[in-house]
């Protein structure tokens, strides 16, 4: 087997292991351990990021709309594109049965890898998914602030940690994976947390959840 093919196979395997480990390690958003004194889930908050047009974006820019938010990165080999595709298909399903509700939901993809996910990279990437999907990036600190507000875990994984010496030697410093939690958050038109969808929930299940929580205008 060639070094390149072996590296690709290892990358996919590592991503799957990381996703499973993070899912087991991270507290599910909205659980009792993550609720504030008021009883509402302590998820969400202020952030300042940059969209694919290079414009500064804050939560207030989405006031009046439900937000379906996913944190990931464009170089993710499987978990992120799968989750974003599930979001897109769920919105398409909702549009077929409840178009007034679907129009009130804006899908948002926030990178946890701003080092590689520039405005241009994000713009080209989100075009592969829902036509209304918003891609957001920013500085390392801006991204950290947003991730912390949503209690999202992420960490850079260097090649040396998971590849054999031969495979690691073939990879550049920019060729790394990101371990991260994988939840899709549903936030209300006021920015308050409503619920979340876990990795591998089907588009039908996500669409059903949206239909239950989203109110037409």
UniProtKB/TrEMBL annotation:
GO MF annotation list: metal ion binding
Keywords: Copper, Disulfide bond, Metal-binding, Signal
Residues in the signal sequence: 1-23
Annotated Cu cation binding sites: 76, 80, 180
Pfam short name (any one): SCO1-SenC
Disulfide bond sites: 76-80
Transmembrane segments: none
PANTHER family with a match to the protein in the record: ELECTRON TRANSPORT PROTIN SCO1/SENC FAMILY MEMBER, LINALOOL DEHYDRATASE_ISOMERASE DOMAIN-CONTAINING PROTEIN
Family listed: Belongs to the SCO1/2 family.
Record protein name field: SCO family protein
Species the sequence originates in: Rhodovibrio salinarum
